[in-house]
Design a protein that fits this description.
There is one protein chain. The protein is mainly β and 180 residues long. It is built from one helix and eleven strands. Strands 1-4-5-7-8-9-10-11 form an eight-stranded antiparallel β-barrel.
């Protein structure tokens, strides 16, 4: 089935979906992280993209960069401030289909700041899994500036530059299950 033929209501499968990010650390290497707890659902209509919509809620405290000290710092008021802002949300506002890719535009809210972003997602196809579920897959990435969301903590480096890059690459791999 191609993207234009896709139609239905879908729920994210957390065990096969990844919301991750990559940023530069100390100007010389990358730090990768992901969120372990989230939920999302959407309506997909490839023939009529304006009828599509998507909502995702991410538990900000579920951030995992494989370093407990760093994760604790990211959860603190210097970054996500999870005590006051426990959820990161994305709500779509527009869908534009271009061949096998859908540009999903929506409002990303981190802390108390909402910005519109566009994520080009490449349709990976659909399949019936061994349990009888109809699944669809998408993957893509986009870049945001963390300073746009008030995430401005940093430390200057002796050699010039800063400890944490302002530019963050968001990487998304989605497996969603059609709902009856």
């Amino acid at each position: 089935m191609n993207l234009n033929e896709l139609k239905g209501t879908y729920v994210l499968d957390p065990s096969h979906t990844t919301f991750s990010f990559v940023t530069r650390h100390a100007m010389v290497t990358k730090v990768r992280g992901s969120f372990e707890e989230f939920e999302g659902q959407g309506v997909v209509d490839g023939a009529n993209p304006s009828a599509s919509h998507l909502e995702v809620k991410i538990n900000a405290a579920s951030v995992n960069t494989r370093n407990a000290d760093r994760d604790g710092h990211i959860r603190s008021a210097d970054f996500f401030d999870v005590e006051n802002y426990p959820t990161i949300t994305f709500k779509s506002t527009d869908f534009a289909v271009h061949g096998n890719t859908v540009d999903v535009t929506g409002d990303l809210t981190i802390k108390d700041v909402t910005k519109s972003i566009t994520i080009p997602l490449e349709y990976q196809g659909s399949a019936k899994d061994p349990f009888g579920n109809n699944r669809i897959g998408f993957e893509g990435s986009t870049q945001v500036l963390r300073s746009d969301f008030g995430l401005t903590w940093n430390a200057a480096l002796e050699t010039g530059g800063f400890l944490v890059s302002d530019k963050i690459t968001l990487e998304i791999e989605v497996s969603a299950i059609e709902q009856a």
